Amino acid sequence: MGTGEFRRRYERRNYNSDVIFSLQGKAYAGTLKDISIGGAFVATLSVNQVYKGDVITISIPFTDGKKNIKRRARVLWTSGEGFAIEFF
Question: Which of 13, 14, 24, 75 could hold 54 in an S-S bridge, CB 3.0 to 4.6 Å?
Answer without folding.
Answer: 75
